[in-house]
Amino acid sequence: MAHDLGFWTLQALNALQLSMLLFLLSIGLTVIFGLMHFVNLAHGSLYALGAYFAASLTAVGGYWMGFFLAPVVVAGIGILLYSGLIKRMRKSGPMAQVLVTFGLIFAMLDLTRIFWGDLALAIEVPALLDGRLAFLGVEYPTYRLFIIVMGLAIFGALAFVLGRTQIGAMIRAGVDNDAMAACLGINVERLFFMVFCFGCALAGLAGAVAAPLLSVTPDMGLQILIPTLIVIVIGGLGSLKGAVAGSLIYGFVQTFGAVLAPQLASVLIYALLAAVLVIKPVGLFPAKG
Amino acid sequence: MKRATLAALGLATSIAMPAAAEDIKVGLLLPFSGVYAALGNEIEAGFNLALEQFGGETDATFEIVREDTEVKPPVALGKAKKMILQDDVDVIAGIVSSGVLGAVRDMVHGAGVPLIVANAGNDEATGADCSPFITRMSFSNSQVNRPMGMWMHEQGIGKVYTLAPDYAAGRQMIDAFTASFTAAGGEVVGQEFTPFQKTQDFGPYLAQAKASGADAVYVFYAGGEAISFVKQYDSFGLKAELPLYGSGFLTSPLYVNAEGPAAEGVITALHYVPTIDSPANAAFADAFEAANGRVPSEFAVQGYDAARALIEATKTGASDRASLANALRSVKFEGPRGPLSIDPSTNNVIQPIYVYETVAGEDSLTQKVLAQLSAEADPVNGCEMAPVSN
């Protein structure tokens, strides 16, 4: 099948849009992981919760209410999780952490099922972002462009905060060597708490943003978890650059894999993951050099 | 509560006819958790409604044992064993996933327990793997899609691009459509199977469909995937230039409201639509809506007719496993879907197929029936049916 330039532009935009959605999820997870060596497998569940809260809030006060409030609510749940569970688990080994957060996935799955039912929900795209824009010679859904722009904006803001501000320096110091950072007078535990809540809020935002595009189902958190983990393993733990690179690689491999080698589409990304693990086990851009 | 109503129902009938009351133990094997939990609940609601409406027509009383398959074949097999060996049920009804049906098939066949399939559409279950003990009251994958190939060609559509999830049901549905569409003279210009339950973004496939030069797109998706697909199809603005057709599960009343305006104008075919204009359907749809607060879906009617078939079978006096199996095979009645009968050579239901368009109603989306395609029996597909001896 011969395709014109417009076709490839369209696919590149599709890939970029998927990458940005994954970026929102993986950045929170990877910094939590890098900063405190804490494996939070329940991150995907927070994404699902974000989508559900967005759906409920949208029904009450329109799309933008869900968009702005869902991340706040999910951050609140993050605070509860932190003080109730994660603080206690900080000193136990990674195996116990994985088991607890893995169990949490199923507990949250059933909680969403009890509160919101088994039927899939959906949100309408707000009128402002409905329709399509002519862009680079193709017509592309405005809402998808919105996701791309928002992902890039959040990337820019995070790059600025992490690279140019004092709090960013503290986080980088904590990721690099938390014991030394603590000796220098940085309250690493409080830093972790803040980063954890912010990571949760970003997961909630990702859920709220994904909800009009996909359907809101109880198992959406489980479905997104594996791609997110692949992103941070490919990109390298704990770094912003790694999360961006991993997301872009995942988005483009997945999208162009589906176009060029549909039979291999679901295998390609795992093959790439295996290759990265063999050639560079720490990932492409790990935080610790 | 449900037990209480059933008990009361049983009491009422036993007072009326004290001599002949037979107690029939029914195992309801459905997913109440997992991805198909919504379907399990819908089928159960339909099943209970039929027992309420028609339970008085038979002398038999029904005791329900309900088990959750969790949509996991090994779990379902364990539950089926428990029903057959420990609960000693006379008949099993339910089964949503074809994987689960495949897992329990040999168990029920070997034990000689009649099974009324209330969803799972795998062609083989009433083909090469058919059993005199397994009667399907729902549909077969090809039955729903085959008539649509001819109908679409009659509408003047020459070239079609197809999409479906990459698993047995997706392939059977699309293969049946492709076979009849090409036999009628149409051409399938492109075909893609997306990774099942792993595809959330259909963008890459939609761009390909657009570039394929097809007149229309024919798809099968269900549940969450259907919602994502229909919304994304509309967001790319494809509906106007490339009309969307499909297997009717795509716009099932169970989740069409989640799809919203994106579903308007989508034309699909299915064995049941809640707006079928008949007294039997009106009685069913009104009662279902009154009890559950929503329009019944094809899954609800499958549960409803499964219970109805059981009641019809007991009316012939059948009460044990072998006689029930025999009676179920010759069940015949007029239901919400129209006239139903069982094909003696495969034990699959014979039913009309409805082509419908999803349109905007007064306050929510509704279904406009465009055509009723005549009931046809599936080809035998290698089924050799051994008779059941009493």
Automatic annotation (TrEMBL), chain A:
Compartments where found: Cell membrane
Keywords: Amino-acid transport, Cell membrane, Membrane, Transmembrane, Transmembrane helix, Transport
Membrane-topology descriptor: Multi-pass membrane protein
GO terms, biological process: amino acid transport
Organism superkingdom: Bacteria
Any one cellular-component term (Gene Ontology): plasma membrane
Keyword Membrane: yes
Transmembrane segments: 20-39, 69-86, 98-123, 143-162, 191-214, 220-240, 252-279
GO molecular function term, any single one: transmembrane transporter activity
InterPro entries xref list: ABC_transp_permease, BCAA_transport_permease
Assigned protein family: Belongs to the binding-protein-dependent transport system permease family. LivHM subfamily.
UniProt name for this protein: ABC transporter permease
Natural source organism: Marivita geojedonensis
UniProtKB/TrEMBL annotation, chain B:
InterPro entries documented for this protein: BCAA_transport, Leu-bd, Peripla_BP_I
Keywords: Amino-acid transport, Signal, Transport
Keyword Transport: yes
Pfam families, per database record: Peripla_BP_6
Residue intervals of the Leucine-binding protein domain: 24-359
PANTHER family: LEUCINE-SPECIFIC-BINDING PROTEIN, PERIPLASMIC BINDING PROTEIN OF ABC TRANSPORTER FOR NATURAL AMINO ACIDS
UniProt-recorded name of the protein: ABC transporter
Species per Swiss-Prot/TrEMBL record: Marivita geojedonensis
